[in-house]
Amino acid sequence: MIPEINIIIPLYNEEKVFPLLISRITALLNQSQLAIMVILVDDGSTDATSLLMKQLSIEDERFSSIILSRNFGHQLALTAALTMVNASEAVLIIDGDLQDPPELLGDMYLLYKEGNDVVYAVRESRKEGFFKVGFYKLFYRMLQKIASIDIPLDSGDFSLLSRRVVNVFNAMPEESRYLRGMRSWVGFKQIGYKYSRPDRQAGNTQYTFRHLLRLAMNGIFNFSEFPIKFITFMGVSTMSIGVIYFIITLIKRFSSDYVPDGFTAIVFLIILFGGVQLISIGIIGEYLIRVFFQVKKRPLFIIKELIVDKKEIKNNDSTSRLF
């Protein structure tokens, strides 16, 4: 039977929260009148997450499992699951730590049935650390100011996507992915759904500050012209500073006996222009790195193992993207 809805859940070292997660998902499946299939993705976990996933998928055909060959990152784990979607209507994306309550599917599905291709969840509040909440709020507001498209504030990956939006996602080949930006870029009719984000239900977050920073950079560099324009701005600004400094020095030279210290002036200009050049090279380098990895055309991910319809399928072809 073809499901109406797929639920996609990426997991990385989530063995502690896994039993509670599956308990709540199973309750949703049993209570819902919709035909739902769940796609679990193990992103190279080093604990027992993949074993728990495999055991569940072999016992319950409503759950499919994707085991990646290593840790490719949250966004590419989601991408892997999106390529395996078989739902006729829509796909719900949630995190495995239960901070995205699966029980909200019903309300989001009603909004989808009103003609919205994308129903994105908006976090009215979130029970997380002050620093993390502050970082997110600052980033989302900065990105909205500089992005070339309208990316909703305080909205993560938690969303319900129509099948045609998923098809567009799967046709987009970029290597450094920022799904919430891609979601805004595709267009179609979209609507926000406000909710209060609870705290993680068990275990510790695997999403470090380094991962958050990389995700933020993907958002900025993939969906904004600001970094390149910033180089131009810095160039004009430093040139202006240099001209102003020269004029002030010239005025002082001819209006008094003051003679500027030439060594100090040279050091000042070297530091100023050197700093601007290094920042500019770094920004251009970030773009070049992205182009470099994109033109290699490596697979975005490698699936080591699949469990579908209670059957385990192992990847014995190392040259294949999926199998």
Written account of the structure:
Keywords: Glycosyltransferase, Membrane, Transferase, Transmembrane, Transmembrane helix. Residues 7-166 form the Glycosyltransferase 2-like domain. It holds the Pfam family Glycos_transf_2. It is found in: Membrane. The protein is an alpha/beta fold. It has two domains: 5-206 and 299-314, Spore Coat Polysaccharide Biosynthesis Protein SpsA, Chain A (Alpha-Beta Complex), CATH 3.90.550.10; 226-296. The chain has helices at residues 18-31, 49-59, 74-82, 105-113, 130-146, 163-170, 179-185, 209-223, 226-255, 262-296, and strands spanning 5-11, 36-42, 63-68, 90-93, 118-126, 155-162, 190-197, 303-308, 311-314. It has a nine-stranded mixed beta sheet, sandwiched between helices. Strand 8 and strand 9 (311-314) form a beta hairpin. Helix 5 runs parallel beside helix 8 (209-223) and helix 9 (226-255) packs antiparallel against helix 10 (262-296). It is elongated and about 90 Å long.
The CATH superfamily title of the largest domain: Spore Coat Polysaccharide Biosynthesis Protein SpsA, Chain A
Rg is 25 Å
Flag low-confidence runs: 318-323
Given the structure, what is the number of helices?
10
Largest sheet: 9 strands, mixed
* Structural class by secondary-structure content: alpha/beta
Q: Helix content range of the residues, please?
A: 40-55%
Strand content: 15-25%
Strand tally, please?
Answer: 9
Q: How many structural domains?
A: 2
User: Which overall shape is indicated by the principal axes computed on the Cα atoms?
Assistant: elongated
